[in-house]
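Entry, Tuesday afternoon. Goal for today is a structural model of the target with nicotinamide-adenine-dinucleotide bound, before we commit to ordering more compound. Inputs were pasted exactly as handed over by J.K., no edits. I checked the ligand SMILES twice against the vendor sheet because last time a stereocentre got dropped in transcription.
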Amino acid sequence: MKISVLGAGSWGSAIAVLLSKKGYDVSIWDRNQQLLNEINHSRENIRYLPGVLIPAGISTTESLLECINESEIIVMAVPSHGIREVCTKLKGMVKNKQIFVSLAKGIENSSLKRMSEVIEEYFPENRIGVLSGPSHAEEVSRDIPTTVVSSSTDKKTAEYIQDIFITPKFRVYTNPDIIGVEVGGAVKNIIALAAGISDGLGYGDNTKAALMTRGIAEIARLGVALGAQPLTFAGLSGIGDLIVTCTSMHSRNRRAGILIGQGKTVEEAIKEVKMVVEGINTTKSTYELSNKVGVEMPITKELYNVLFENKNPKYAVSELMLRDKKHEIEEVAQMIWK
Ligand SMILES: NC(=O)c1ccc[n+]([C@@H]2O[C@H](COP(=O)([O-])OP(=O)(O)OC[C@H]3O[C@@H](n4cnc5c(N)ncnc54)[C@H](O)[C@@H]3O)[C@@H](O)[C@H]2O)c1
Ligand SMILES: O=P(O)(O)OC[C@H](O)CO
């Protein structure tokens, strides 16, 4: 069975390796021909996933049509800001029976849509699922035990994706709450940037634990307002992904945050991290979305001020500490029994 992976970044490459090791016929597309040449030549993705063998069975192509031709599954592994561009290019090439699996974690700036919603705009007849959860490419590609969740509005699709991706080292659960799964995966990047900034400022574990705990509260508030199930945020794509992204040195969002906390500009931080720092765009969309649906997201708001209004991160933290007094449990209860 053939599977196409669109995007030869770190996650696209890691997932292609996993699928190839499982015996599928994997074809990778990327817009960057030079990157594909390098992968073909060295059987390694030196830029995005160094040190990992890309099996000989994986083919690469710069032609989208060739990549998706005859494939049963189209894995969308480009960053969230590139999903619409790729969907536009795919228009007219895709057959209705082909299933999309989105790996991208973000909320689009222009439309404030989740990634599966963007894909559905172009391919309303196709089955669409998402794979999300605590899963750094650097670890998955080295067979380090990892757990994720497959989600789709259609149970059979979620279970099909579970069967395709599951391995003894990559355990896939299902969750029908696609809104919650996508909101958790996208918005945790904002909190990871904030946690990184806190580390970069030299604050401690207490501060980071506070950001993570209050972070999941505001992620869940937004998610529930958009129609998600509260308990999804206690799962792999919620608190699970938040933990890994806020604590791992593999996290691009956390690393960018550390650099900003240490005094680098946003542009300098992006340049130094080299790979996609999705939390930056997502901060903008989430800030706008929270205003649109009337949900209070204090950490997101302060991060927006730091990233886009040049606010000193230390003042942003003070502002968070000096907010009106609140009752913690009341808020959680309201969220769950709304
Ligand atoms: N890296 C991880 O560990 C990881 C894990 C889970 C999910 N994800 C998600 O997977 C998605 C891809 O992340 P990544 O880490 O592989 O990114 P990356 O920065 O490693 O690679 C990005 C790749 O996408 C291509 N690309 C960039 N912009 C594009 C555009 N506009 N159109 C088409 N192609 C474009 C680039 O050529 C590059 O090959 C992101 O949404 C990310 O949040 C990443
Ligand atoms: O490296 P990050 O910060 O983009 O996070 C990657 C994945 O989303 C972790 O699950």
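The first helix runs from residue 10 to 21.
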